[in-house]
Amino acid sequence: MRALVTGASGRIGKALCDELLRRGDEVVGLTRSPEKARAARPQVTWHAWEPTLERPAEAAFEGVDGVVNLVGERIDQRWTDDAKRKIMDSRKVATHNLVGTIEGLAAKPKVLVSQSAVGYYGDRGDEILDESSAPGEGFDCEVCVEWEKAAHEVEAAGVRLAIIRTGQVMDAGGGLLGELLLPFKLGLGGPLAGGRQWLPWIHLADELGVLMWALDTESVSGVVNGTAPNPVTNKEWSKALGRALGRPAVLPIPGLAVEVKFGREFGKVAQGGQRVLPKRTEELGYGFKFPEIDGALRDLVG
Questions:
Q1: How far is Cα 188 from Cα 147, in angstroms, rounded to an integer?
Q2: For a 10 Å CB count at each end of the chain, is N or C smaller?
Q3: What region does 158 belong to: left with phi over 0, alpha with psi -120 to 50, or beta?
Q4: CA-CA distance, 271 to 259, in Å (whole number)?
């Protein structure tokens, strides 16, 4: 397969490119800085793209069988008006621009796998959520709704679309786990804001697995959740990380500390959660390598 990846120089994008190359695929990457990306991964064919300002060049799609769209500004930051505009545009406008190029191609890719997030569902307490659940309320939900709406535009061009609503990707090199690994190693970790909120998580290997499965499998279309089948509360996650490291995990992190770091609006969102199940993902045949949090964290940090 020849696969094109947007956001290919991001944390998940780099890991996906490596995995595609490992199995023998050809990979095309879109990035703002192709020279820098080329130095790090010369096996990838790099093309420059400013996602919110232009459509990607048609030349980048020559011979491409499938596209994985991972572009997007980091959401874990202070939500100033400027930051919120960048977060929205980097998903909505960028995906619209990507689809615009695909629609105009004489030879179109067979599939677009487009990233979304469990933020679509909002903070719903203990409610069990799956792909059929309605969107929640709040800026994070609005971003995901608009992101997915832009991706759906590709269906009019006859291209199969799979949307992956991803949870917290467990990766020792970044994300939630990467940020909290050091304090937990020092015995300074513990549950956030009481720890009752649900944490929809997925091991990096399964995040890549779901993306590649959706890319490869013709029967996969529509929304699938990129979350492990056994969500845990923040308190349970903290205990599991403590077990994996052989360290206590009993020092609570007050919610106020998150609000001080990220501001009140995102700070409140970070203290919420979603009890998400990958119902369609499993029904359509994906088998999780790491369905339980203890096994996942032991594999990553044990």
A1: 37
A2: C
A3: left
A4: 9
What is the distance of C-alpha 187 from the center of its chain?
A: 29
285 CA to centre of own chain: 20
Q: Which amino acid is at 11?
A: R
Say if residues 266 and 78 touch (Cβ distance below 8 Å).
Answer: yes
Against a cut of 0.90, is the pTM above it?
Answer: yes
Q: How far is the C-alpha of 295 from the C-alpha of 135, rounded, in Å?
A: 31
Strands 66-69 and 111-117: parallel
Q: Return d(Cα 270, Cα 180) in angstroms, integer.
A: 14
CA pseudo-torsion sign 179, 180, 185, 188: positive
Q: Consecutive 10-residue runs of the chain (302 residues): their mean pLDDT?
A: 96 97 98 94 97 98 98 93 97 98 98 98 96 97 98 98 98 93 91 92 98 98 98 96 93 79 83 95 98 98 88
Cα angle, residue 45 at apex, residues 159 and 64 outer, rounded to 5°: 20
